[in-house]
Amino acid sequence: MTRTAPALTSATTGHRVLSEDDGVLPPGTSVFDEHLPGVANVHRDLLRAVRRAAVDAAAEGIDLQVNSGWRSPAYQAQLLRDAVLKFGSRAEAARWVATPERSAHVSGDAIDIGPPRAAAWLSTHGARYGLCRIYQNEPWHFELRLDAIENGSPAMYPDPTYDPRLNA
């Protein structure tokens, strides 16, 4: 993989700047932009499902973009620090951002879709691809649940603090 210059949207983490190598994605990233680690490191089954959905969405004039996919632990840690500053406490930040040790983004098992119109399309049609919203407060966040193809999406958690995977 060719190393890239730090993205303009990179955030500072201690002594280094986050870059595309950490999963930082430029605006307008396509689910087919596999030269970007933030897309390429998404679990292959999840990425395959999102790409199938993107083709079908495009046929309806909807452009699914990846706002965030795989993230390095450093990137996830920075997002958590930023959320603590924004929301005033770690407990409130946990409603929006998981720790690097528990994040589905760090493991490549989650993808954030935009713009809002595309996330709404995927929220409506995602189960047929096994793509499900997991949290009521994050309309952009999708994970792969293959049983949703036959059974529909499972009930959503109000926010990540209710998700037993993050509280184990």
Q: Assign a percent range to the helix content.
A: 25-40%
Overall tally of domains: 1
Derived from helix and strand composition plus strand pairing, the structural class reads alpha+beta
3D shape: globular
| Shape-level CATH architecture | 2-Layer Sandwich
Provide a count of the helices: 6
Q: Largest sheet, if any?
A: 4 strands, antiparallel
| Rounded mean pLDDT score | 92
The neighbouring-strand order within the major sheet is 3-4-6-5
CATH-assigned fold name: Muramoyl-pentapeptide Carboxypeptidase, domain 2
State the total count of DSSP E strands: 6
Beta-strand residue fraction: 5-15%
The topology string of helices and strands comes to EEHHEHHEHEEH
**Rg, Å, rounded:** 15 Å
Q: What is the CATH first-level class name?
A: Alpha Beta
Protein name: D-alanyl-D-alanine carboxypeptidase-like protein
GO molecular function, one term: carboxypeptidase activity
GO biological process, one term: proteolysis
Pfam family, one: VanY
